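> @MW can you paste both from yesterday?
MW: sure, first one:
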Amino acid sequence: MPWRRGPLRPIPRFFARSMPKGIFPRSLIIIIAPMVLLQSVLAFVFMERHWQMVTQRLSAAVVRDVASIIDMIETFPQDARMSQVIRIADQDMDLDLTVLPPSALPAPVRSPIFDILNGILGSEMADEVKRPFWLDTTSNPNSVEIRVQIPDHVLKIVAKRKSVYASKTYIFWIWMVGTSLVLIVIAILFLRNQIRPIQALAEAADNFGRGQQTPADFRPAGASEVRRASLAFIQMRDRIERQIEQRTQMLNGVSHDLRTILTRFRLQLEFMDESEDKRELQRDVEEMQRMLEGYLAFAKDEQGEDVGELDLEQMMQRLQSDADRKGKSVETDVDGDPLITVRPDSFTRLVTNLVANAVRHANRISVRARHEGRWLTVAVEDDGPGIPAEKRDEVFKPFVRLDTARNIDAGGTGLGLSIARDIARSHGGDILLSDSSMGGLRALVRIPA
């Protein structure tokens, strides 16, 4: 579209940034915006048509009374005070008439821009009276003053404002604003009832995506489309949980059988005489045990663990102790609340894998955690050789071995980073790799906690 490439291009972006993100406020805008537009059109039509028409008719009636007074004065002989005309004007026409000696009319009074009374009344006076006149429609909020110049006199006529002006317009505004507020309240109540099931579905899906239990009171509700979506989510969740349970049971059986075989190997080796062959076989059995544990941990991913609280400071102390035993330096720092809501064993394994990967290839390691709002970020940096940028996505694949062997060590399984990313994503977050200011690799974990 042309406007997307012209000077109007920023307008859609402005509206996109300004629009609320939630479905509830957006639904309110969809309802309120047409209502406001309709009310504005009605108000304009009323102001331009009805209000102007009523004011014109009232003004014409008062001007005819003024013309009648002038006609009486010029047609019938009057006394010097014109008492009869003043009495008729007061009693029959509800006008306050004062006869002034001949003089020049005052200068015109400037009226507000949106004052329609001055224009309508002046137009009626010019058409009906056809004599020099002067109007003051703004000095007194309760009355309108008219002066007419006739031979030998100046007539000063004061009429009540409600006699020449549609002054009850506030009733229209009260009804318009009142009905709008009532409709908005009804719309809010209705929308809240309709959107609540959608919000419940979003919360259940978010909890399930982070490995947490869905709310106990979650059930299909709301409109038929929302009910179908909720039912589809429940069925999907049940299928996934059954698959996880079946996989866990299978892995438990496989791990039991394999551990049994490895235990028999160890027992047989114990009956052998000490020799270089025995030591080689023992190392092979230990290596098989470690690889088996790594494969099973990658396959199980500890999905069955419940969510609980984890103290980051205690976890950092354990990481420091493990690094000290290996002769490596690990600096730790925790910013914010140290208590986080995660699956404790899984998250500890995530950070431990990243730190262990750094310890194998670097001398100095930094682990910094920042807990702000509902998000937790953990940055693990080192001064090691790092990983080339084009291979950083590849190292997260299972069993991938780089030439530099950054993601594994001698005899390793190549699953450390894969397990770490799976755990991060099961918590609703992810891991990003980049260059470290220390000269090596920087692994940034960001999860909701």
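MW: second:
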Amino acid sequence: MTPIHFGTDGWRAIIARDFTYANLRMVAQGIAAHINSGTGPRKSVVIGYDNRFMSPEFAQECARILAGNGIKVHMLINPAPTPLVAFAVRHLECSGGIVITASHNPAHYNGVKFIPAYAGPALPEVTQCIETEINRVAEGAKIYEIDLKEAAQLSLIEEIELDNAYLTHLDKLLRREHFKAKSLKVVVDPMYGAGMGFLEQYLTRLGIEVKSIHNHRDVMFGNIVPEPVERNLFDLRRAVVSYNADIGLALDGDADRFGIVDQEGRFINGNLVIALLLDHFLKTRTVRGPVVRTVATTHLLDRIAKLNGLQVIETPVGFKYVSQAMREYNGLLGGEESGGLSVWGHVPEKDGILACLLAVEMMAYSGKSCAELTEELYRDYGRLVNRRQDVLFTQGREPLLKERLSAFRPKTISGLKVLSITDQEEMRWSLADDSWLLARFSNTEPVLRIYTESADLQSLEAIEKAFCEALEINN
């Protein structure tokens, strides 16, 4: 059996190969044992699921086991975005939450996310405890379970609906009056995922004209990967232009990541959107606090923070670390380049729905297009261009690439002086002129991720080329 391991954000595996009922049952028992090892007399958990193949059935299997361990189960009756489950954990004061989802992975994957009582992604010390319990089950420890009808009779399970409560919570974070400053037309693409209906419902209530695509369940996700990045958003880009819309909004499979398309049908990368939203937040809110970003996220946030007297906290890659810093330092805004964002007052979990609504609020309040807002941002803080490349490699090649990475310690890269080299979970080369390069291996795929930022596209491409040539990989 392949060992069950929680990666950057949960356990994900290919359905029928490693994501099986047998393995899921072990994971559910591991989570139940972890919850029961905690303090407090009354344990409870929220369970949600996305639109993937068999996700509702897998969620019910988890419910049988959690209830069998004496843990009260609040089962969400509709497909649930991860941020909604996180909200439910806090709203109901639960011991934790489980989401059956593989997020933005391809359709043949499914997975499990565990959300602890603090309503954010599980940190390594939590998932390591769960993995220890899973290993005990694999070695013969008992799985406790109960029939769902019997669980209901014992008040160990109840079905709940919190969609409206979640949207009401978002009302406290958004400024409804700003949305009414300018009439906008919006196209929404939930990518067949669990976020279907949330953006449409909220914006329609405000009188905003909304068109929606890919807004029904399709377990194959239209034969694309439900990740809201440029290569997967052709239909949204085309729809924005066809409908003469002001903005296009996309969500990933469990709606914790966002993607934005401007009125010309151009994709705006997550780094730039987060910088724009930070600038908007500072202009429209009085609350202040540190800005939290991962090591792979744009340093444009640093420039904005510095000129506004704010501290920047840098974390390793993974929103779980952003969440931890947001909680510990009362952060104003936390972001990661892959389209993850949360703000002060919200649950410490990335929320694509909130990010998309903030983008619409920003446009309506300013009366400006995304392009105009971007030029204004660059005028105030200077231009930085960034990009992530994912290099797929064949099985067995990772040790060689790691060896080459470790040996890559030049004094200059593409003519720019190397100021420092950091070698931790990822390797980062800090260069002159605010440029930097970072490389890390994916925890879920045979992929080397390369992140680059520089003053302009020409410099960025030169840095990428020099790096790929040194490692003998194709970019």
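> thanks! The mean pLDDT is 95.
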